Every structure is written in structure tokens, then in C-alpha cells.
């Protein structure tokens, strides 16, 4: 099928396959039980499939959409065998993801007409936020871009120190102040420094806790406003980092942060250590915000640009 042509490098695809192995194995084990003894897709199979999808952290709303799509196929084709269910699921989930994703991106691209291109990163501590920033900085630097990091998550000293470790590892400059400093002040200094250095990309680490939404909103709004004093219309991107291994809790975090600020892209991390990979499908569909990156391993190269075609291909183990 041409839709599922291979477009990743073989090494990246191998990493993706391996990263989704737990999710895939668990899903197909449940799916096998759901269709056991059945030769055609009927109401019982659909009821069981609904349970499989919900328990795989796809989410209730997205599950119902998928079931509706499959019911429409069953009604149209009159007879669908359970041996075809894998292919049908693959096609319908790819179709659902197409509504949010163009799906052709495989590289770390940023607009050439925005300089510096400013990414503000939000998410709770422990979601892989700082690690994601470090890996992004590495990828952008590999392209020959000049990157500056800003340590504006000033609530914990550990957050600042961790970002410093990544800045040293990737060998990019970092702007930091003491713990407890005003995050907006750090952001202002970071952008000022980036402009002076003629940097291409600025990545600002912020808001490492889900304090009440009003405080969070005020803090992020202030950070944005202060950055705009240096470079108009920034940030260019607000990236929310979610821990995929938390399943439904990732949905709740997405809900809280999208209420607090205008999130424009998502990174879903730690998919390699969990059987909850279905959360990528549900969050992408429910929030209508593109999943831009997925974390499928601990290595510095294991943050991948999310591509719906390759993701569905790996999840359903196509050969």
C-alpha cells in the first residue's frame, strides 16, 4: 500500500519499532482475545475492540470515533473477516491522525524566515522536558544552526542544573540565573543574548509544575510578554512535553496546560518503557494539536520527529 511506504532511515525505523514494542505486544495480545473464535467483525467483536482501545490508553472519545469508522466499513462492505481487522484498524487510525497531521515530516525543520526561532517549552517536572530540550538542541546544532538555551524553570535548582548538563553535553550556550529568579527575566536575558549572538534557535525551559491554573497562566503570559519586548511575535512555538508512560494522566496534563496557555505542538516521551503508546493516537485526536516529537529511547538520537505513517506502520508491525 503506497500510503505506508518507508520514508524513515532504516536505523530510525528500527529504533521506532523497538520503542513501540511493549505497546504493540500488549495491544495485539488484547486484540487476539477480543476476536478469539470469531470469523467476522460483528457487534460482539466491536464491543470487545472498544474495550481493547480504551484499555490501551487511546481514550474514550477517540475510541468511539475509531469504532464508528469501522462500523461504517462493516455496513458498507457487508462482510469483513476478523483477519482483516488489523488492516482496517491501521487504515482508520492513519485516517484519523491525518486530520491533525500532514504526516510527511521526518526532519527537524524550522521556518527560515524566523530568526531567531523561539520555542517555549512547558510541562511538569519528570515528563522528560529538559531531556527533550537537550535532544532538540543537539538535532538543531547538527544542522549547523546556532542554538541558545534559557533556564526559565526557576522553581527548582535541579531543573537549572539539569539544563546546564545538557548545554555542556551538546556544547551550546545557556542563559541562567539563580533558583527563585523571575522566569520572565531569564527569558528576556536569553532572547537578548540570542539576538546579540545572531542565534537561529532559542529554546526556553519554563513552568515545571502544575500549580493552580491562574498562577500558571499568569506566569506564562508574563514570560511571553517580556520576550516580545525583545523579539516581536514570540514565542513562535509553544511545545508541551508529556510523559507517555502515564497514560490517562497525560491527557489531564494536556488539558491543564492547553487551558493555561496556547500550546501549538506536543512532544510525547518515554514511549519505549511503556505499553501505553496508544496515548499518542488519543492525545493527537482529542486536542487537535500536532504531536511533533516522540521519545522512543534514552539515547541522544532517540527523540524522533513524529510521522503518522511510520508510527502506524510500526505500531501495527507491517512488513
TrEMBL record:
Catalysis: reaction(s): GTP + H2O = GDP + phosphate + H(+)
The keyword Acetylation is assigned to this record: no
Entry EC number(s): 3.6.5.4
Hydrolase listed as a keyword: yes
GO molecular function: GTP binding; GTPase activity; signal recognition particle binding
One Pfam family per UniProt: SRP54_N
Cell compartment(s), UniProt: Cell membrane; Cytoplasm
CDD domains assigned: FtsY
Keyword terms, alphabetized: Cell membrane, Cytoplasm, GTP-binding, Hydrolase, Membrane, Nucleotide-binding, Receptor
InterPro entries on file: AAA+_ATPase (IPR003593), P-loop_NTPase (IPR027417), Signal_recog_particl_SRP54_hlx (IPR013822), SR_rcpt_FtsY (IPR004390), SRP/SRP_N (IPR036225), SRP54_GTPase_dom (IPR000897), SRP54_N_sf (IPR042101)
SUPFAM superfamilies linked: Domain of the SRP/SRP receptor G-proteins, P-loop containing nucleoside triphosphate hydrolases
Domain called SRP54-type proteins GTP-binding: residue spans: 290-303
Sequence positions that bind GTP: 123-130, 205-209, 269-272
A GO cellular component entry from the record: cytoplasm
Membrane topology label: Peripheral membrane protein
GO biological process, one term: SRP-dependent cotranslational protein targeting to membrane
Enzyme class: hydrolase
NCBIfam families per UniProt: ftsY
PANTHER family attached to this UniProt entry: SIGNAL RECOGNITION PARTICLE RECEPTOR SUBUNIT ALPHA
Subunit field text: Part of the signal recognition particle protein translocation system, which is composed of SRP and FtsY.
Role noted for this protein: Involved in targeting and insertion of nascent membrane proteins into the cytoplasmic membrane. Acts as a receptor for the complex formed by the signal recognition particle (SRP) and the ribosome-nascent chain (RNC).
Family: Belongs to the GTP-binding SRP family. FtsY subfamily.
Listed name of the protein: Signal recognition particle receptor FtsY
Originating gene: ftsY
Amino acid at each position: 500500500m503506497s500510503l505506508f511506504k518507508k520514508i524513515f532511515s532504516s536505523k530510525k525505523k528500527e529504533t521506532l519499532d523497538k520503542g513501540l514494542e511493549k505497546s504493540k505486544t500488549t495491544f495485539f495480545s488484547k486484540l487476539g482475545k477480543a476476536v478469539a473464535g470469531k470469523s467476522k467483525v460483528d457487534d460482539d467483536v466491536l464491543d470487545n475492540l472498544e474495550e481493547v482501545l480504551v484499555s490501551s490508553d487511546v481514550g474514550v472519545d477517540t475510541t468511539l470515533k475509531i469504532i464508528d469508522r469501522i462500523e461504517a466499513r462493516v455496513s458498507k462492505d457487508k462482510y469483513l473477516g476478523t483477519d482483516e481487522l488489523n488492516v482496517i484498524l491501521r487504515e482508520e487510525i492513519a485516517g484519523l491522525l491525518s486530520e491533525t497531521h500532514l504526516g510527511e515530516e521526518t526532519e527537524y525543520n524550522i521556518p527560515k524566515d524566523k530568526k531567531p526561532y523561539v520555542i517555549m517549552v512547558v510541562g511538569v517536572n519528570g515528563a522528560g522536558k529538559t531531556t527533550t530540550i537537550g535532544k532538540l538542541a543537539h538535532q538543531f546544532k547538527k544542522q549547523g544552526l546556532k542554538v541558545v538555551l534559557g533556564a526559565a524553570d526557576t522553581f527548582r535548582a535541579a531543573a537549572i542544573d539539569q539544563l546546564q548538563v545538557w548545554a555542556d553535553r551538546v556544547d551550546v550556550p545557556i542563559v541562567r540565573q539563580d533558583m527563585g529568579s523571575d522566569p520572565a527575566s531569564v527569558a528576556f536575558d536569553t532572547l537578548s543574548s540570542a539576538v546579540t549572538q545572531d542565534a537561529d534557535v532559542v529554546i526556553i525551559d519554563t513552568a515545571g509544575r502544575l500549580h493552580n491554573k491562574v498562577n500558571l497562566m499568569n506566569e506564562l503570559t508574563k514570560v511571553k510578554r517580556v520576550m516580545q519586548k525583545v523579539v516581536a511575535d514570540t514565542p513562535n512555538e509553544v511545545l508541551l512535553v508529556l510523559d507517555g508512560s502515564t497514560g490517562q494522566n497525560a491527557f489531564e496534563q494536556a488539558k491543564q496546560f492547553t487551558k493555561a496557555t496556547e500550546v501549538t505542538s506536543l512532544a510525547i516521551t518515554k514511549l519505549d518503557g511503556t505499553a501505553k503508546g496508544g496515548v499518542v493516537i488519543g492525545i493527537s485526536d482529542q486536542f487537535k494539536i500536532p504531536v511533533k516529537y516522540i521519545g522512543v529511547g534514552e539515547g541522544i538520537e532517540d527523540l524522533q520527529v513524529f510521522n503518522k505513517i511510520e508510527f502506524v506502520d510500526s505500531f501495527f508491525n507491517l512488513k
